[in-house]
Structure to design on (173 residues):
């Protein structure tokens, strides 16, 4: 593994911790890190001893567009419609990876989409009525994790896309 890959893994490991904390707060189930890899990013263990893969994937704007949106439009956040388009694309892309590579490591996998260019609170309205749009995949669970304010607040909030029991915005006090 190159120094750049090692550095990326360290960043991902740091980003996993707030998700695991928020996940436990929302679901009541703790997950403990067993190992980090590439397919999926992490393998965690449930209290019952079963393993689950965790795949982190960032939702971001194109670097070139960020500059011009800030300069020309004073726009600091990604558009809510662009978020939904990005989510759909990432679920399809990660489903392909899950079905061909992840299942050889661990059967059950959770996809965590990291929202870094907008706050969940400002875009959650866009998901009203879209619950059925996030069911055509093989992931055990799909979460949208708000990392936008992580540095300022030290925690993240989640929006559950799948399964149905997890659906919705889980605001933390």
């Amino acid at each position: 593994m190159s120094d750049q890959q090692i550095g990326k893994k360290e960043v991902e490991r740091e980003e996993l911790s707030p998700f695991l904390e928020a996940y436990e707060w929302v679901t009541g189930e703790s997950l403990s890190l067993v190992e980090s890899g590439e397919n999926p990013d992490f393998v965690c263990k449930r209290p019952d001893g079963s393993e689950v893969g965790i795949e982190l994937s960032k939702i971001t704007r194109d670097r070139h567009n960020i500059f011009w949106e800030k300069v020309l439009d004073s726009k600091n956040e990604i558009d809510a419609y662009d978020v939904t388009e990005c989510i759909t694309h990432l679920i399809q892309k990660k489903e392909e990876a899950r079905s061909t590579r992840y299942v050889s490591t661990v059967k059950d996998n959770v996809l965590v989409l990291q929202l870094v260019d907008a706050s969940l609170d400002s875009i959650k309205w866009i998901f009203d009525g879209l619950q059925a749009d996030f069911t055509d995949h093989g992931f055990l669970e799909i979460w949208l994790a708000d990392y936008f304010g992580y540095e300022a607040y030290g925690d993240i909030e989640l929006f559950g896309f799948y399964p149905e029991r997890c659906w919705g915005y889980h605001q933390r006090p």
Q: What stands out?
A: The two ends are 40 Å apart (CA to CA). The mean pLDDT is 86. Helices lie at 3-27, 63-73, 80-100, 120-123, 150-153.
